[in-house]
Amino acid sequence: MDTLFSLLVGLGLAAACGFRVFVPLLVMSLASRAELGQLVLGDNFAWIGSTPALIAFAAATLLEIAGYYIPWVDNLLDAIATPTAVVAGVLVTASSLGDVSPFLKWSLAVVAGGGTTAVFQGLTATARHISSFATGGLGNPVLATAEAGGSALLSVLAITVPVVAFVLVVCFLYFAAKRILFRRPVRTA
To answer: Nearest CA to 19 among 72, 61, 47, 70?
Structure first.
């Protein structure tokens, strides 16, 4: 049962990496340092909770969030963030899985964590391109705020109540797939 909850934590954090790359890593670093011991990292991932890592994640988070408020730079960041987000999704999933065999840990991390991140990153990049085209980039700050807030909220939920975070991830995927795959063509008069 612990492995299942660890996987749910990892998938919630991986989905959050699809919104913003560094927010989940910052939340993980803070949670691992908390007095309550909310997140226990394995020996190979203890560096995530170190002071240098916390400072690096905080700086990277601030730069990433600020960059998404600059029109057209946000689209460039999406191109850079996509492979980076997948790597971060694999990392957060692997670090959340406790005592499981290395083969299972990295298989789940790459397939489930990386795949979840890739889907969420693809959805956010698509939404940004649509927003850029439809509003000339003026609507992108609203989208950036929603993405940063969603990443933070999902990261905190993944660590504190992983089942709720997983349900949110599944619901978001359902509605996004329904909206994209089953949309009706626009009729012209």
So the answer is: 61
**Structural domain boundaries of the chain?**
2-172
Q: Is the pTM of this model over 0.85?
A: yes
Q: What is the spatial distance between Cα 40 and Cα 114, in angstroms, rounded to a whole number?
A: 21
Provide the token pair at 12. 């919630």
What the block records as the tokens of 42 is 């394995």
* pLDDT tens for each residue of 38-70: 788 877 898 999 999 999 999 999 999 998 888
CA-to-CA separations, 80 to 57, 60, 62, in angstroms, rounded:
17, 14, 16
Q: Where are the alpha helices (DSSP H) in the chain?
A: 2-19, 22-33, 51-67, 73-96, 102-108, 115-135, 140-160, 162-181
Q: Which of 28, 121, 23, 140 minimizes the C-alpha distance to 80?
A: 121
CA 72 – CA 126 distance, rounded (Å): 14
22 in Cβ contact with 57 (< 8 Å): yes
By the 10 Å C-beta count (0-12 exposed, 13-18 middle, 19+ buried), 22 is classed as: buried
Amino acid in the structure at residue 73: V
